[in-house]
Amino acid sequence: MKNQTVLISGASITGPALAFWLARYGLRPVIVERARALRLGGQNIDVTGAAREVVRRMGIEGDIRAANTGELGLRFVDEHDVTKAELPAGKADTGRFTKELEILRGDLAQILYNHTRDTTEYIFGDQITGLREHGDRVTVSFEHGAERDFDLVVAADGIRSRTRTFIVGDEPRIRSLGLYGSYFTIPRGPSDSAWARWYHAPGSRSIILRPDNVGTTRASLWFLAPPRGYERMSAAEQKALVMRVFADAGWESPRVLAGLAEAEDVYFDGISQVMAPRWSHGRAAIVGDAAYCPSPVSGVGASLALVGAYVLAGELSRHSNHRDAFAAYEKLMRPYVDQAQKLPPGVPRLAHPKTRLGITILQKVLRLASSPLVQRLEGRPGASPADNIDLPDYASRG
């Protein structure tokens, strides 16, 4: 399928990763991003399992290591900031909170952009408003730019992807996990260190503070609640909601909420998974969070996106017909995605106790889990959802 043009919606992680491989295989990628520039904010993500092999094949593993956040591990603390349990960073094949390749989402986006800007046309400040397939082309309309024709179109944006609806309609189901989360950056404080800290407050609330590599602290606030449409509120309304929910949370909540009031990179959403019966229609496909977001609590969202981009591009490179390529992509990725989306029983409720007694019990369990014996057993290499795929070597197939 060399020399074919592929329009990709989304310039975060999945889109540029897909463009990287498409360009390597002789296709011509174009990325449209509704933000006016590359979005460099965001929280920690990790590259684990099969995705580590993908970034090795891309030649960017060294770049990722150089941008590591330096996080040493996770400490669970009480309202007096006393550590109740401690989980040091682990290698990529362990189930630790902090992995070997920890990087800020924005830093990974920058790395991918740097490796694709010379081979990919980027269109910032615009978005797709319609697709019209005819013959061997797709005519795409944009909010601002003129209509253009492409051979293929791929939605590689987020869980609330608008482009996805032009491809597979309302078929995908957004499965709520009954958890809301807000992410933002706050100034570094005297109590911050190279360790992440997780504090539980009564009422199924928690605050996580994580170090970064630029001298600030990445905060996230979580609370259990049934789906109430909070994600559809305005940004100001969402800030006010979080302020109310955490007003009496204790610990460092006054400092965190003060940071929230001033933060300009606030992200808020209902934590959910995307369950899509199919990932393509005609000359268009979906990939990454738009197709199969496993939710942040899975810990493998970025890895799933990197692997999905690699497989989709690879299958397009080895099939002369796009329908065969899309079918092969889904056949290979579907079992991997299904496994990644299977969360442990009780997640996320077990991680957000409602009462003080529940928090005490959780802390005792965490202390046991952080014991030297359990950590040695946990440190042994073993399969995880991020490993459950046999990556083809597309380069050897031509």
For this entry, give a set of tags:
alpha/beta, 26% strand, 6-stranded mixed beta sheet, single chain, FAD/NAD(P)-binding domain, 12 helices, 7-stranded mixed beta sheet, 398 residues, globular, 31% helix
Walk me through this protein's architecture:
- The protein is an alpha/beta fold.
- It has a domain at 5-69 and 105-174 and 273-344: FAD/NAD(P)-binding domain (3-Layer(bba) Sandwich), CATH 3.50.50.
- The protein is 31% helix and 26% strand.
- Strands 5-4-13-14-15-12-16 form a seven-stranded mixed sheet, sandwiched between helices. Strands 7-2-1-11-18-17 form a six-stranded mixed sheet. Strands 8-9-10 form a three-stranded antiparallel sheet.
- Strand 1 (5-9), helix 1 and strand 2 (28-33) form a beta-alpha-beta unit.
- Helix 1 packs parallel to helix 9 (301-318), helix 2 (50-58) packs across helix 9 and helix 9 (301-318) runs antiparallel to helix 10 (322-340).
- The mean pLDDT is 93.
Concise synopsis of the structure shown:
The protein has 398 residues and is α/β, with parallel strands linked by helices.
List the secondary-structure elements in sequence, H or E: EHEEHHEEEHEEEEEHEEEEHHEEEHHHHH
Structural class: alpha/beta
- Residues in helix, %: 25-40%
Work out the strand percent.
Answer: 25-35%
CA-based gyration radius: 21 Å
Average pLDDT number? 93
The CATH homologous superfamily of one domain corresponds to FAD/NAD(P)-binding domain
CATH architecture of one domain: 3-Layer(bba) Sandwich
- Described by the principal axes of the CA atoms, the overall outline is globular
Unreliable stretches (pLDDT < 50, length at least 5) are none
The number of helices is 12
CATH class of one domain: Alpha Beta
Q: Order of strands across the biggest sheet? A: 5-4-13-14-15-12-16
Number of strands: 18
Largest sheet: 7 strands, mixed
User: Span from first to last CA?
Assistant: 11 Å
Q: Which fold name is given in CATH as the topology of one domain?
A: FAD/NAD(P)-binding domain
